[in-house]
Amino acid sequence: TLFESAALDGAASVQFGGICKVVAGAAIVKGARVACGANGLAKTSTGTNPAGIALSAAAASGSVLSVAMVN
Hints:
Blueprint: E1 19-23, E2 33-36, E3 42-44, E4 52-54, E5 64-69
Antiparallel strand pairs: 1-5, 2-3, 2-4, 4-5
């Protein structure tokens, strides 16, 4: 999820590692493996290639949480 506006075909920042903030698409518990959902929001990962580990919990869709990127 981008926290900045970018014009069509404009530049945007992308993070490849470290700890980042993401917007949840549903509730996520601390310690859960996190992936990107089809809507671009974070979700609990059900696959073998999570994007990161939730360092904080998200109570509901639209909540912001910290994620340690792993890939």
